[in-house]
Amino acid sequence: MRRRPRSGLHPWIEAFQEHLLVEEGRSERTADGYTRDLTLLEQFLRREGSDFASADPLVLSSFLYYLQKERRNGEAARARKVSCIRTFYSFLVRQGYVRENPAEELRAPRVPSHEPIFLSQEEATALLEAARRAGTSPVRDHAMVATLLYTGCRVSELTGLRLRDVSFAGESVRLFGKGAKERVVPLHPDLARILRGYLRVRRVPRGSPAPDRLFRNLHGGPLTRHGVHYLIKRMAAALPESLPGLSAHKLRHTMATLLLEKDADLRSIQELLGHASVATTQRYTHVVNRRLREQVRKLEF
Fold first, then answer.
1. Catalytic residue at 249?
2. What are the angstrom distances between the C-alpha of 252 and each of 76, 157, 191, 273, 285?
3. Catalytic residue at 133?
4. CB-count burial class (<10 Å; 0-12, 13-18, 19+) for 143
5. Nearest alpha carbon to residue 91 among 134, 31, 36, 47
6. Could you give the CA distance from residue 299 to residue 301 in angstroms, rounded to a whole number?
7. DSSP β-bridge partners for residue 174
8. pLDDT tens string 269-296
9. In degrees rounded to 5, what are phi and psi of residue 221?
10. Where would I find the Core-binding (CB) domain in this sequence (predicted)?
């Protein structure tokens, strides 16, 4: 086994992290999440007198029990950690660090299915108006919210957008999703107009990092995920009617649900959102069907 590097990470975790970033093209956020989960597992194994090399299915199952009872992890958090451990040990087997995969039969808890939460057409319009009034940089914030609503992009895709990814001539926006997968979505005429207005006031001081990133913070640096979440909450607080728990991801749900209500087909929405499986997109049909049932109940003969 290699000596522990200066980063303090176990060398196998460090090798796995590099594999995720370089070979699989995962985002730094994903790699960091896997690293945190595996560091927690390493600490638990040490407490149990074990390590990555000697861990067996029993001690890994004990780790899941520990997550549930001592750390109060819910189903989704435990399922994510199971996925991480399985992927990690598959990597260790391929690299020859361990002979057998003790996580092969590790069972993830069933995660309850939740209907996506989204805004109505009126609420989405009100949020766009709030961005013009309550944002720290109104033109930018209006453009940011419009991009989330018109493209259905993830926050990481929004903050990763570069100037060259927006083609006004080609009427398209290029997005890089999970695993660096590329997709191209149409540039709505209203979004094109809003982005042109933003580009007229966009400023990037000399020497600023990542100058090609489209959305900038007040200091001229690239806007971060945390910055986006902060701005969305600030805008939501300025609305006359409260929108509790509003997030950028709910704007992605909003775009998908409103398109479905306007008779867009599931395959098209799947393509726009970058879902690997249409089953993920199908969640939105339950929302629309429920709303239709509510309307039908109003009938009286």
1. yes
2. 20, 11, 15, 8, 15
3. no
4. buried
5. 31
6. 7
7. 184
8. 788 887 766 565 566 566 555 655 565 5
9. -80, 170
10. 7-93
pLDDT tens by residue, 54-91: 999 999 999 999 999 999 898 888 988 999 999 999 99
pTM for the model: 0.63
Residue span(s) of the chain under CATH 1.10.150 come to 11-95
Please confirm, yes or no, whether 233 is among the known catalytic residues. no
Helices assigned H by DSSP within the chain: 11-18, 28-47, 57-69, 75-95, 121-134, 138-151, 155-160, 189-201, 225-237, 248-261, 266-273, 278-281, 283-296
Q: 186 - beta bridge partners?
A: 172
Residues of the chain short of pLDDT 50, as ranges, are 1-3, 6
Radius of gyration of the chain measured on its C-alpha atoms: 23
Is 284 considered catalytic here? yes
Catalytic residue among 154, 213, 250, 253: 154
Crossing angle of helices 248-261 and 266-273, rounded to 10°: 160
For the chain, residues classed under CATH 1.10.443.10 are 121-296
Catalytic residue of the set 10, 26, 142, 252? 252
Quick one: pLDDT at residue 115?
A: 53
Domain 121-296 = CATH 3.40.50.2300: no
Q: Is 154 a catalytic residue?
A: yes
Phi first, then psi: what are they for 276, rounded to 5°?
-70, -30
Q: Is 127 helix (H, G, I), strand (E, B) or coil?
A: helix
Say if CB 151 and CB 173 are below 8 A apart: yes
Class of the CATH-defined domain 11-95:
mainly alpha
Catalytic residue among 178, 183, 225, 283: 178
